[in-house]
Design brief:
It is built from six helices and five strands. The chain is α+β, with helices and mostly antiparallel strands and 140 residues long. Strands 4-3-5 form a three-stranded mixed β-sheet, with no helix packed on it. Strands 1-2 form a two-stranded antiparallel sheet.
């Protein structure tokens, strides 16, 4: 039985369900103010935490530490560039079978998972080749 949600939680959940991208708490705060549905930033954070614990909102932390929230539509998988911050979403889940096995063997209800690989995107790799750092050009 789902928990009884507050009006603010419902507003946030509706925004996340109608948005095609993940949003930070600050983005949510700003978007709600634009539509005259504003609430305090602390209320946004409290509501997001409650929705996350209910399992209807998921959070992903970016390389710079920012939390991005989205509605529970699917698991998220990304390739993230450490140099420029670009994030490439992967459509297939390489660990779906593992998730099912873990739920069964540990009697643990998994709401979602994230999988993120960190490295350099193609443009940043090319940039490094064209402009190597001093450490890369040293001969030992």
């Amino acid at each position: 039985m789902p928990a009884k949600r507050t009006r603010n939680q419902e507003k946030i959940l509706q925004l996340l369900q109608t948005t095609q991208r993940s949003l930070s708490a600050q983005d949510i705060f700003t978007e709600l103010r634009k539509t005259r549905q504003g609430m305090g930033l602390a209320t946004v954070y409290r509501s997001l935490e409650a929705l996350k614990l209910e399992g209807v909102v998921q959070v992903r932390t970016t390389q710079n530490g920012e939390s991005l929230y989205s509605s529970m539509q699917q698991d998220k998988h990304h390739l993230t560039c450490l140099q420029c911050g670009a994030s490439i979403s992967l459509s297939d889940c390489p660990v779906r079978q593992l998730e099912l096995e873990l739920q069964q063997s540990h009697h643990f209800k998994i709401f979602y998972h994230t999988l993120e690989f960190f490295g350099l995107c193609s443009p940043c790799q090319q940039s490094q080749i064209a402009n190597p750092s001093p450490e890369q050009t040293l001969d030992y």
